[in-house]
Amino acid sequence: MSLKRKIAAALLATTATMSLASCGGKDKDTIVIGATNTEKPQWDVFKQEAQKAGLKIEVKNFQDYNIPNRALTDGQVDVNNFQHMMFLAQYNVETGSNLVPIGATEIYPLGLYAKDAKSVEEVAKAGEVAIPNDATNQGRAINVLVQAGLVKLKGGQRLTPTPADVDPGASKVKVTPVDAAATATAYLDGKPAIINNDFLINAKIDPKSAIAKDDPKAPQAQPYINGFVTKPEHQNDDKYKKLVEVWHHPEVQKAIDESTGGSAVHVTMDGPQLTDVLHKTEDSFRKENNK
């Protein structure tokens, strides 16, 4: 289902949520943050450190990933923190919105794992890598292999390449798309595989054992940097910028490391820098999807 359809499907639920939220009102000095998975320990630490920094915040949890941006657009939250720039770019392009990042938080790398290989060279000898077949992770997985020097694309860099874009003659491995859950199974069966964090945890694979993973500094990985997001008129608000500073407090970072098994890569990038990444991602998304 396209992002646009998902947003439409969630709209009814969003409206009900917004109506309830608006009844209570809010303190004008309180920054309301929309997020998902707020049960993770870093959020409690973040709230404590925000209070110490003199910020009044309220964190609203959303179960559906399509609602926090709508809530921000409609003014029911002031900021959100749950998404990477690829997701935001798709939202902005599909809905005609212009939400912008305040600053980066982290990137959750997509890694290459192999039981019987310890290096990229050994993976090349295996000759094949299993990758997730869903649209978002498939393109990202191929770009991880591009960054690792295992795959070359026919037409140069693409935001969301498919197996059809892989140049088999110039590549060192063949990519085999499988269901995302089956990537961990492929790994356990001895085949190199690109596996995302959720399935790593379920399969009890150590994230630190990745042979290669996203490099936040590489152009192919930058669309997957997460960040605090708001409306353009608030991007340079000092109170909102302070949220990013607090998120990078050592105690918050420690909590993130503990909850992700050390797999999160912390990224320091300010609003204008991350906005540049966002705009480039939006342009590429429009071009590749004829928007």
Chart the SSEs and their pairings.
Layout: H1 3-24, E1 31-35, H2 41-52, E2 57-61, H3 67-73, E3 79-84, H4 85-95, E4 100-107, E5 111-113, H5 120-126, E6 128-132, H6 135-147, E7 174-178, H7 180-188, E8 193-195, H8 197-202, E9 212-213, E10 225-230, H9 238-247, H10 250-259, E11 265-266, H11 271-289
Parallel strand pairs: 1-2, 1-3, 6-7
Antiparallel strand pairs: 3-10, 4-10, 4-11, 5-8, 5-9
Helix pairs in contact: 2-10, 4-11
Summarize the structure.
This protein is an alpha/beta fold. The chain has helices at 3-24, 41-52, 67-73, 85-95, 120-126, 135-147, 180-188, 197-202, 238-247, 250-259, 271-289; strands at residues 31-35, 57-61, 79-84, 100-107, 111-113, 128-132, 174-178, 193-195, 212-213, 225-230, 265-266. It has a six-stranded mixed beta sheet with strand order 2-1-3-10-4-11, sandwiched between helices. A three-stranded antiparallel beta sheet has the order 8-5-9.
Q: Low-confidence parts, pLDDT < 50 over ≥5 residues?
A: 4-24
- By CATH, the superfamily of the largest domain comes out as Periplasmic binding protein-like II
Termini Cα gap: 17 Å
Helix content: 40-55%
Number of domains: 2
- Radius of gyration over alpha carbons? 20 Å
| Largest beta-sheet details | 6 strands, mixed
- Average pLDDT, to the nearest integer? 89
What's the CATH architecture name of the largest domain? 3-Layer(aba) Sandwich
The neighbouring-strand order within the major sheet is: 2-1-3-10-4-11
Give the number of DSSP strands.
Answer: 11
Strand-residue proportion: 15-25%
Can you count the helices?
A: 11
Q: Which outline best applies?
A: globular
Given helix and strand content, the structural type is alpha/beta
